[in-house]
Amino acid sequence: MEKLRFDTPIDRYHTDSVKFDFKKEYGKEEGVLPLWVADTDFAIPKEAADAIRKRAEHPLYGYSAGDASYYDSLREWMKTRHGYEIQNDWVINTPSVVFAMVIAIRKFTKEGEAVMIQTPVYGQFYKTVVNNHRELVEVPLLQDKAKENGYEMDFAKIEQLIVERNVKAFLLCNPHNPVGRVWTKQELTRLGDILIRHDVRIISDEIHMDLAYPGYKHIVFASLKEEFAKNTITCTAPTKVFNIAGLQQANIIISEKELRNQFRQEVHSTGYMEPNIFGMIASRECYAHGAEYVDELIRYVSKNVSYVTEFVKENMPKARVIKPEGMYLLWIDFSGYGYEKDELVRRIEHVAKLWLNDGEAFGVEGRGYMRINLATTLATVKEACERMLLI
Fold this sequence. Notes:
The protein is an alpha/beta fold. 40% of the residues lie in helices and 15% in strands. It has 14 helices and 15 strands. Strands 2-10-9-8-7-3-4 form a 7-stranded mixed sheet, with helices on both faces. Strands 11-12-15-14 form a 4-stranded antiparallel sheet, with helices on one face. Helix 6 (155-165) packs parallel to helix 7. 45% of the residues are buried. The model has no long low-confidence stretch (mean pLDDT 96).
């Protein structure tokens, strides 16, 4: 495989990039440095790009489906990277993980029934629940600020509210976005035992599964116990790690046949039947040839994380970096500055001229925090750090 050079900047302007080309539509001024939405500024694996070009040369793009080679590549990836052995027929394609979460909520809960999330969490978790007229039950993560990443699950509160609110489904985020926890086997097992004991359906968002840092290991929730697998919809996608979100491809893994058939029926009821041909091609090549790419990506972003962490420690004593265990998204606590919420956002955007994610978008627990995307060149990270000094 060709040696990848993540240090090489790629101009993403005028490519219909949400991150770069829609500042005006998002109410941002020119000159802001965009480090928000969760895609990378890195070229996709060469094998995937070559395969897309080759297929694009054929002038017909009719209805298409993935053949055995696609599912074989996914199956081998899951086995070798995550120790999870799946079967080809367990996989259902959807255009995104969020789409799959909505499908699962609609199929396995009724309007007015309760769905639980752990906050702060990716904003779409809130929307998938409330926009589908389900009752949102929030359980804040516990946080020990004396630790580098002191976020933990509040198991007692989870079980208490499941009983009190008659919770029917649980949205698991693993690795947890935005706090960067990669949940351990012990944590996931304890959570799973609670959920199974109370017959709660598990919808597990594992889209960042391939981005665990050295010293940490992503555990596929459904792999822990057969009883967990039978009650879980595992939502995965190659889109984050390989930067192919625009090709709209997700792989939803459901081992229990009846559960899988019900989920597939609900997907078809939306009118979605065939996946994007280029999404299938790119995903297959990424899974088949992308191991070295991912390893190098993790090493590169790890260095970006280290740079920001040291910079903040040395130059911004009022701020605090939450050490990530996975993902290329960094959670930074700016509450030490004492700014009101609107003032912090104003200074980040209009003084430092950075386009980050406001922490409160992930829940009230995120007030005073910002999420920054470090899947970019080190030069860009250094520029972002210098701008942060201005807040």
